[in-house]
Amino acid sequence: MSLVEPPNTISDRTLITWSAYGLTAIAAALAVVLAVVRDAGQGWSVAVLLLALPMAVLVLVLLAPQFFEIRTRSGARAINFLLVAPVLGPVTFSLQTPLLHPEIGWTAAAAGALAGALVSFWPASRPEVSGRGAIGLFLALYGAGYAYGAPMLTNLTFDAATPRVFQAPVQDRNVTFGKGGRRYHVRIGPWGPMTHAVTADVRQRTYDALASGAIACVTLHPGVLGVAWYKVAVCGA
């Protein structure tokens, strides 16, 4: 089995498909664990696996994309988009932690999408592969997710530097409801290098302790990759 001669035997198919879907399931379970930990700077062992598993799944998909094709309602053949799941954990965790300059993450995602779209020409050019447009979309999404999630997860989880602490007034707060349950948000006024009010996700206990008009403490972390991020907390907690 090689990248030069794509695998096509039944044994190859079984090994590759079960490996890819198994790793995808493990990545999804680890994403749940990381969501429970949630705090940046913790859960580094889970983070390491979440950085490695998406690359392993991507290699298997590129090795034999024809093994992961499914039939759509129209009868067309397309790649199974469930395989995007391994990149969702790093992305979701990273999106929960506000960045001082969020445009850095979006620029990385755009670059990843472009790289994925370019890579799609390789498997889509092989005669045994159909659904070529779907492969391009799949790899663009995968590239965007990994290019955003992996660096940001690394930046947050492995940041052990001492943060700077600022204070900011709580202007408002609210609760939203979604598929992941309740999410708690507080809006704080300008602080430190932030010249305008911002809204940040917080844990319920932080939300309950920060009524409108209270003073919140904001810890500004440099990030292990130099991408500064911050966390809103109760002063003295």
What does the model show?
The chain is α+β, with helices and mostly antiparallel strands and 237 residues long. It folds into two domains: 148 residues, no CATH class; 71 residues. It has seven helices and seven strands, in the order ααββααααβββαββ. It has a five-stranded antiparallel sheet with strand order 5-4-3-6-7. The protein is elongated and about 65 Å long.
Helical amount = 40-55%
Q: What would you report as the Rg, rounded to the nearest angstrom?
A: 21 Å
Q: Please count the helical segments.
A: 7
Mean pLDDT: 87
> What kind of assembly state do the chains in view correspond to?
single chain
| Portion in strands | 15-25%
Which segments are poorly predicted (pLDDT under 50) over 5 or more consecutive residues?
Answer: 1-5
User: What is the rounded distance between the termini?
Assistant: 56 Å
Biggest sheet strand order reads 5-4-3-6-7
Count structural domains: 2
Order of helices and strands: HHEEHHHHEEEHEE
Gross geometry: elongated
- Major sheet, described briefly? 5 strands, antiparallel
The structure class reads alpha+beta
Tally of strands: 7
